[in-house]
Amino acid sequence: MKVRTTFAIGLAALALTSCSSKAVSSQDGTGADGVKTGKGVTKDKITLGALTDLTGVYATLGKSITQAQQLYFEQLNAAGGVCGRKVDLLVRDHGYDVQKGVSAYSEVQPKVAGITQLIGSPVLGAVLPNLERDKLLVIPAAWPSSVLKEKYVQVVGSTYEIEVINGIDFLVRKKGLAKGAKVGHVYFEGEYGESALKGAKHAAAAAGLTIVEQRIKPTDTDMTSQVSALKAAGVKAIVLSAGPKQAASLAGVAAASGLDVPIVSNNPGFAPQLLGTAAGPALQKNFYLVNGLQASSSNVPGIKALVAAYGKKYPGQTIDNGVSFGYVSAKVFGEALKDACKAKDLTREGILAAHRTHAAFDSDGIAPKLDFSQVGKIGTLESFVQKPDAKAAGGLTTVEGPFTAEAAKTFTVG
Amino acid sequence: MSRPPLTALLWLPLLILPFYVDMFWLQAGLFVMAAAIGAIGLNLLTGSTGQLSMGHAFFLAVGAYGYVYFAGETSGHVTGLGLPAPVAAVLAVALSGLAGWAFSPIAGRVSGVYLAIASLALIFLGQHVLFNLESVTGGYNGRAVPPMKLFGFAFDDSSELIVAGVPFGGLERLWYLGIALLLAAMLFARGVLGARPGRAMNLVRDQRIAAAALGVPVGKVRAKAFTLSSMYAGLAGVLLALTFQRAVPDYFGMLLALDYLAMIVIGGLGSVGGAVAGAAFVTLLPQLLARYSGDLPLVAAPGADGISPAVAARYLYGAAVVAVVLFLPTGLSGLLSGRLPGLRRSATPMKEESPQ
Question: Which among A403, A339, A332, A321 has a CA at the least distance from the CA of A361?
Fold first, then answer.
């Protein structure tokens, strides 16, 4: 009796599975218009994914990037879309939680043709092995050099190392930093800070400077002890590879304790909201941001159009770096899709191949010309130096750039 | 062990699930299984022995990284021993047990909130070590997890396998491994709780002095419970690592430890089935809400103004936790054993009162 029941259940299970929707079937096909399509592309829609952080530590950045990307795809669709198809952005918020990020990736992956935004190095690290299997092109909202060798990851812009090298070059040329001087470097533990440190050491060796290291945790927001240590060491300038909170504290405490030296920071070290805080005046005096993107207050046509369109769609919202970055990275995908359409191949491989043909990607001046043609190569060696200014749009004005330090050309990733 | 047929029937749908559902569900299910194993372990300690531990995430990390280190190969800046995967998994569980045993002089001596604070130190210690011991953990970005291989059968996507017309990738294969491990973990915990050690643990929890007077070595029981619970955490860590395919230090932090406490409280202290139910509740709910909250009324699309789905998911999750604690003092296990008569006998023979 029991055996028979088990047997019956087994048979029923087999019968059920034969009609499973998961059964093997080819995903790639060719549409009526002769365009090869793959996952995420139907006859009237192309879906792209965004794994972002709207509720965690990078919520401000995530919101700006997401809105800017939605703006870009809205414009793209208004202009007719790509290959007669609308482009849709599927947004998932993981709140900077690795497990949620990985689940969101698994959920989104079968539905999209690419991922235009991925916030969070830990999340990127966790999905990295799957990208190869899924052949999915991803643009991370980070600039580490360690992923340059990954075929399916595209860093848009330069890297943390290059920013620091260009920043130190700026200090030497414009701030009179002489040979033998000491430079303090306050950096986050983890990949961001440690990549930046590599750059700082390279630049210091080239310019004959000494680096005084101060390693901090992302949870450290009071820079008093770092400032006193750097003051005691007699530094003539400070490099900061941390977040906006640390920048505010560092500039404020340094000014209060009479350490009147220039501070150059990697691009994640500033947010326009800082100018409203007590550290605002100190930041405007001594703080310089090394950035891979034009300041929102500059006059290049791409920025002007973006600021106008963004202000119209999201009135009253702060325009920060995330907006420019989100727009440029969405455009990187948009252009890849257009070229993939010309080649009549909208599969994931087709999109990647089209993307890799761009050796001098032009974003109307929002970013320097970017080279995506070689895996393992930094997209650009150019940076801008910007200065906080409470009166400017986005809180930053351009000081210099784009420029490339000599030392940046001799830097090798590895 | 004669078990009611109804319970066995509940497992059947789980066996055919991989033929139907997509990766998202399989992954979510595997997270639940791993969390359930870990929660059973914590429940043995907190629910049954009355020892509050905040260090559970640390032992999960020991299990996960232990496996990665033992099974991984030396390449680039990371080192590994390159042992066969099953051996590495067993060693990783043993290593977690060893770590728990090393902590047991403290676990045997202090109790309740004091142990919670002492074990909290493990989390911070663990985070520091994980971030800095780069040759083992890969540092901030973590390290790839070598796939499980049993008798030449790999639990990953490397070889093609089609069962009844459905392609079986890594997650589908892992699913059955997860079910087997979870079943074993549940049966073992029931065995422990139903026999002498379980009675000793309960007595240590309820009446420490009476336990000592009856000849139960209180310190030793606490220390052993802590070691056993760490081994469960280690096993959960191994399964988690296999599901993630990459072990990232950031994950094994304070929040994870709190999640595990939430699981056993919501599930019902001291009950094995409750721990599993709690693990499912805590692991699945946020993911489901995040996935489907876009379809709820009054929720704005992600990126737009208003309550975003993720925020709505958090509110709902918080409300659900409060509701369970308010209206189900014995947790989900109380609900299950109260409503479904067929399950009553399978619930562990334990007092339903809270440990303190």
Answer: A332
Strand, helix or coil at A47? strand
Residue in B251, B308, B314 closest to A98 by CB: B251
State which residues form the domain around A355.
29-158+297-380
Structural element, H or E, at residue B73: none
Give which of A21, A30, A120, A125 is closest to A346, Cα–Cα.
Answer: A30
Q: Which helix (H) or strand (E) holds A401?
A: strand A396-403
Q: pTM score, two decimals?
A: 0.79
Give the total number of structural domains in chain A: 2
pLDDT at B112: 75
Percent of chain B with pLDDT over 90: 23
Has residue A68 been placed in a domain?
Answer: yes
Selecting from A98, A103, A191 the residue whose C-beta is nearest the C-beta of B28 gives A103
CB pairs under 8 A between A and B: 130
**Nearest residue of B to residue A313 by CA position?**
B304
Whether A109 has its CB under 8 Å from any CB of chain B: the answer is: yes
Q: What pLDDT is recorded for position B340?
A: 43
Number of other CB atoms surrounding residue A7 within 10 Å: 10
Instruction: Using an 8 Å CB-CB cutoff, list chain B residues near A146.
Output: 141
pLDDT computed for residue A7 by the predictor: 55
- Unique residue bearing structure tokens 């049954």: B48
Strands A237-241 and A182-188: parallel
Within this chain, do residues A317 and A200 fall inside the same structural domain, yes or no? Answer: no
pLDDT of residue A287: 94
Cα–Cα distance list, B329 to B110, B193, B341 (Å):
27, 21, 19
The answer to whether the complex's ipTM is over 0.85 is no
Q: What is residue B1's predicted lDDT score, i.e. its pLDDT?
A: 42
Whether residue B141 has pLDDT greater than 60: yes
Mean pLDDT of A22-51: 78
Tell me the C-alpha distance between B26 and A102, whole Å.
Answer: 12
Same domain as A150, residue A242: no
Residues A366 and A387 in one domain: no
Identify which has the larger pLDDT, A159 or B1. A159
A241 and A254 co-located in one domain:
yes
pLDDT digits (tens, 9 = 90+) for A268-324: 889 888 888 888 999 999 999 999 898 888 888 889 899 999 999 888 888 888 899
Helix B5-16 × helix B170-194 angle, to 10°: 160
In terms of CA atoms, which chain B residue is nearest residue A26?
B167
Q: Which of A97, A107, A121 sits opposite B141 (nearest CB)?
A: A121
Residue A332 reports pLDDT greater than 90: yes
* Closest CB to A121 among B28, B140, B311: B140
| CA–CA dist A324, A327 (Å, integer) | 5
Say whether both A181 and A259 belong to one domain: yes
pLDDT, averaged across chain A: 87
Distance CA A234, CA A259 (A): 9
A308 shares its domain with A286: no
Residue numbers in A near B142 (CB within 8 A): 122, 125-126
Q: How far apart are CA A51 and CA B327, in angstroms?
A: 36
Instruction: For residue B133, give the chain A residue with the closest CA.
Output: A190
Of all helices (H) and strands (E), which one includes residue A31?
A: none
The CATH code that applies to domain B5-344 is 1.10.3470
Examine the domain organization and report whether A100 and A220 are in the same domain: no
Q: Provide, as residue numbers in chain B, all residues whose Cβ is less than 8 Å from the Cβ of A23.
A: 165-166
CATH of the domain at A203: 3.40.50.2300
For residue B296, the one-letter residue type is L
**A225: in domain:** yes
Q: Which two tokens stand for residue A119?
A: 């916030």
Residue A9 in any domain: the answer is no
Q: Which structure tokens are listed for A128?
A: 């990295």
Say if the Cβ atoms of A21 and B144 lie within 8 Å: no
3-state helix, strand, coil in chain B (%, to 5): 70, 5, 25
